[in-house]
């Protein structure tokens, strides 16, 4: 089967690509509006782009003709929190993707408890096993749809007790959820450990 993307609209290409690029980790992002409304939304076009300093990237699209609230909030306040959700939070992650007016807080609507962040003003979610306090660093626009790739620096990591051993996160204990095509999510299946291979050290530490 061959598909020519020039013959497809943006929505059909989106459905195709989100079924191909799987599974995708989910950045569950809290941000504050200029008026103090705490927004919450999930983004599965998400990865890390630097380790020193630690930097994360999320791709934020539009809702209709305008950008999503998260993009506005991050560019306005330059602070946000990226969370990693586990299986018990799957329904809350999905429900937070509902598009509400900017004056509605998804956190309050879903009844989620928050904690004060230490280095930024944006609160973090108490139930998430991982929360990363971020400051905005760069925004790039891509494609005809002008999706915004937002890059931020992690200024503080919060991890649930027991998740880290010898400096590494125990992935099975984290129990992260991932996004696949459509309103569908995935959990970790079998974890296969292979022999270590030689790699040039990325740094002296």
What does this structure look like?
With 205 residues, this protein is α+β, with helices and mostly antiparallel strands. Helices cover 17% and strands 37% of the residues. Strand 4 and strand 5 (54-60) form a beta hairpin. The longest helix is centred in the N-terminal third of the chain and has 11 residues, at 10-20. It is globular, with a radius of gyration of 18 Å. The mean pLDDT is 94.
Number of helical segments with 4 or more residues: 5
Largest sheet: 7 strands, antiparallel
Indicate the structural class: alpha+beta
Note poorly predicted spans.
none
**Strand segment tally:** 16
| Widest sheet: strand ordering | 3-2-8-11-12-5-4
Order of helices and strands: HEEEEEEEHEHHEEEEEEHEE
Compute the average pLDDT.
Answer: 94
Which word captures the global form?
globular
Helix content estimate: 10-25%
Report the radius of gyration as a whole number of Å. 18 Å
Strand share of the residues? 35-45%
Distance between the termini: 48 Å
Family: Belongs to the flavoredoxin family.
Protein name: Flavin reductase family protein
Keywords: Flavoprotein, FMN
Domain Flavin reductase like: 19-172
Which features does this protein show?
seven-stranded antiparallel β-sheet, 37% strand, 205 residues, alpha+beta, three-stranded antiparallel β-sheet, 17% helix, single chain
